[in-house]
Amino acid sequence: MKKLSLSIMLCILALSISSVKTKNPAVLITGGAGYIGSHTAYLMAQKGYEVILLDSLEHGQTFDHSWATCIKSDFADKKILKQIFETYDVEAVMHFAGFIEVGESVKNPIRFYENNVVKTIKLLKIMIAHDVKKFIFSSSCAVYGNPQWLPLTEDHPKNPISPYGKNKLMVEMALQDFDKAYGLHYVALRYFNAAGAMPELGLGENHNPETHLIPIVLRAIIEKRPFYIFGTDYDTKDGSCIRDFIHVRDLAQAHWLALEYLNKGNCSECFNLGTGSGFSVKEVCNAVEKVCNHKLNILQKDRREGDPPMLIANPKKAKEVLGWQAQYSDLEHILKTAYEFTIQYRPSFIPPIKYDNYLKLCKKP
Ligand code: UFG
User: Fold this and answer.
1) For residue 352, is the peptide bond before it cis, meaning its omega torsion is within 30 degrees of 0?
2) Is the pLDDT assigned to residue 23 strictly greater than 70?
3) Average pLDDT, whole number, for the chain?
4) Which of 2-11, 45-54, 84-93, 109-118 has the lowest average pLDDT?
5) Cα Rg for the chain, rounded, in angstroms?
6) How many Å apart are CA 158 and CA 21, to the nearest integer?
7) Would you call 164 a catalytic residue per the annotation?
8) Ordered structural domains, the chain, with CATH
9) Percent of residues, the chain, with pLDDT higher than 70
10) Parallel, antiparallel, or unpaired: how do β-strands 242-243 and 279-280 relate?
11) Whose CA is nearest to atom 5 of ligand 1?
């Protein structure tokens, strides 16, 4: 009798594990509670993936969405990763987790190299050990450094000028070697200036500290504070820097397409993600004033160290190979969605969400 009940129990256990394993393919999203990660996680859930979201929640994110399994953890935690890979049928890892503040990377490079490079290598090592061999990497236009030509094509020389940009390039280089040696297939997506939000889902940009142009301008309007332009003497049409702003929803779409691309057996690649045209900081300020129907108090400051005057993507390769094209990146739409998110979800308005520091092995009801 005892023997029988034990075998029934084992059978139930095996069934429950295999039922997790045979569900929809899973995608592990590190940094999935962050800005670009959360938008991508949502899209992947929409596309029918089992979304496992791994995030340290170090940066004040408040992420609690029923369409994902949320795990609060460091992205290189061997024990947690092992548990995830043994429990879910993880088809691919999308790696968003990483420090992003360029200025901070100059002041504290050890922290950046440790987190963005060393820990990413650890993650890749554990993936390979569990035979998870598809990787979508959040890279950056920072790998190029100061442009020698514009718009930037993927074959532009790589001369990153900040530890942050070097971190991204180092991981890209490691990925090339891991592909050859271990058959790890990857797509490195080099983002230009991510912007915009999906306020209807409570998703948007909320870094702490915030250094990015659009959320800072919007907060300056809402909180009636001055906005400081860093440098008005650049060799550009109006003296301020020019950037290629890409809606975060378009970035999310590119991640899904990148995985589709790998799933078709295509080889590892890197792609620029931008629109192909740019706006100056002053133009962004003017557009924000129009969208918000408020006047900004604009003050001028010295140039910010390490800011290239112009960054504009050539997105042709992503279009031709992935079939990707920006659809939501019209500046007005970017600003409207970002504004709506900012007024609804300003940090002071966000109630803290409590996470248990344990692995949730099943989806929330
Ligand atoms: N800016 C201001 N005032 C502010 C904030 C920004 O004038 O308060 C200016 C910056 O000096 C820059 C432009 O707005 O000229 C855009 O700055 P962001 O910080 O929004 O974005 P970056 O272009 O510096 O950053 C982007 C990506 C990074 C990437 C970097 C490479 O977000 O991931 O390009 O240079 F590393």
Assistant:
1) no
2) no
3) 89
4) 2-11
5) 21
6) 41
7) yes
8) 24-349 (3.40.50.720)
9) 87
10) antiparallel
11) 213
